[in-house]
């Protein structure tokens, strides 16, 4: 039986970041991945490195997010080198467009709440200030203003995942795809993780980072972590000349010139990942209201993915009280939080003590909750 310091269950953005971080610190790591058929959230990452919308109602999440954003430049340099191509991280600042007075009022109130929680860099811009910030950007006449955070930015999520996987392997870690986990039991000071193909590994520490499959696997180590699938649909257009210099919460121009439009938040409990014409039409219509010039752009592709959502929409991190050395990590912000997952969270897992920010996001808060929201 092969033994490891850490076995990470889940090979998506969260699990790969943790596995890469642990391996980079010298641990012997196995990332156990169900494979390409898994309903992983990494299929649908929008690519934002985003703080302005994180933490409304949970200041610790906002602090954790801002810590990750501060660490992102170093992560971007490392993963670009490991992947052999630019992750296209650009800390340009980010926008949340408002298209009518009701949206503007709601966003202004949101920014006030974020200020009260310590998010001092977030502010509102009116249309004149937007035009000064982005001279030449052909904003539609309905754009009245936007929230703006100069710390926000965006990156290529596929290169990020590729670079972290390469870093895991370069540090001596193993990526083992192809079978789901069926059981976890203690054996002589190790945790034995059994898989559906009859294989198993043993590890001193186990991290459950299995996205929408988190709930049943976390239960194997005594943790109650309710997670539901929330479907998000995306559109990517053909490459265009530079038109949108700053990313927005549902609209960005990628490093290769395509326009990415997103995303829906479809919370119907379904594991269906098909796109729908109605949702894509709504997304495209709003994007055109912001940037009418993209009306004639050809759509290259559209797709959907499932994001793991907790009852309050915030991340959950914990070590099991009944299975010491077994942890859970789940969130729907795998790109933004990649730097803290590969950094302080990985270090905390190896040390057996989660960072203080993570401890404030323990899943015990879900007792009695039923509502699922997104943040």
TrEMBL record:
<keyword id="KW-0560">Oxidoreductase</keyword>
<dbReference type="Pfam" id="PF01266">
    <property type="entry name" value="DAO"/>
</dbReference>
<dbReference type="InterPro" id="IPR036188">
    <property type="entry name" value="FAD/NAD-bd_sf"/>
</dbReference>
<feature type="domain" description="FAD dependent oxidoreductase">
    <location>
        <begin position="5"/>
        <end position="342"/>
    </location>
</feature>
<dbReference type="InterPro" id="IPR006076">
    <property type="entry name" value="FAD-dep_OxRdtase"/>
</dbReference>
<dbReference type="GO" id="GO:0005737">
    <property type="term" value="C:cytoplasm"/>
</dbReference>
<protein>
    <submittedName>
        <fullName>FAD-binding oxidoreductase</fullName>
    </submittedName>
</protein>
<dbReference type="GO" id="GO:0016491">
    <property type="term" value="F:oxidoreductase activity"/>
</dbReference>
């Amino acid at each position: 039986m092969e033994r490891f310091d850490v076995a990470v269950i889940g090979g998506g953005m969260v699990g790969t970041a943790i596995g890469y971080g642990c391996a980079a610190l010298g641990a012997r790591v196995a990332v156990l991945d169900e494979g390409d058929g898994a309903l992983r959230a990494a299929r649908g990452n929008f690519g934002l490195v985003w703080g302005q919308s994180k933490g409304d109602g949970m200041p610790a999440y906002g602090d954790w997010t801002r810590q990750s954003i501060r660490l992102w430049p170093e992560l971007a340099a490392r993963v670009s080198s490991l992947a052999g191509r630019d992750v296209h991280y650009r800390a340009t600042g980010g926008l949340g467009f408002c298209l009518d007075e009701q949206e503007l009022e709601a966003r202004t109130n949101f920014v006030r709440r974020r200020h009260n929680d310590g998010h001092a860099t977030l502010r509102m811009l009116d249309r004149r200030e937007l035009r000064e910030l982005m001279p030449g950007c052909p904003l539609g006449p309905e754009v009245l203003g936007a929230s703006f955070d100069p710390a926000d930015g965006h990156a290529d999520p596929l290169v990020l995942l590729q670079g972290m996987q390469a870093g895991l392997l370069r540090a001596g870690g193993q990526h083992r795809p192809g079978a789901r986990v069926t059981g976890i039991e203690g054996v002589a000071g190790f945790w034995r993780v059994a898989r559906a193909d009859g294989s198993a590994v043993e590890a001193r520490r186990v991290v459950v980072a299995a996205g929408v499959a988190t709930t049943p696997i976390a239960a194997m180590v005594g943790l109650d972590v309710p997670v539901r699938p929330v479907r998000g649909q995306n559109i990517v257009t053909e490459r265009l000349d530079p038109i949108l210099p700053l990313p927005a919460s549902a609209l960005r121009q990628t490093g290769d010139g395509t326009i990415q439009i997103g995303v829906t938040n479809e919370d119907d409990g379904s594991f269906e990942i098909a796109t729908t014409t109605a949702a894509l039409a709504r997304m495209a219509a709003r994007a055109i209201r912001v940037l009418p010039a993209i009306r004639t752009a050809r759509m290259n592709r559209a797709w959907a993915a499932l994001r793991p959502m907790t009852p309050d929409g915030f991340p959950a991190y914990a070590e099991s009280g009944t299975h010491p050395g077994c942890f859970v990590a789940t969130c729907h912000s795998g790109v933004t939080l990649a730097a803290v997952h590969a950094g302080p969270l990985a270090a905390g897992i190896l040390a057996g003590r989660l960072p203080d920010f993570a401890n404030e996001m323990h899943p015990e808060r879900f007792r009695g909750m039923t509502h699922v929201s997104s943040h």
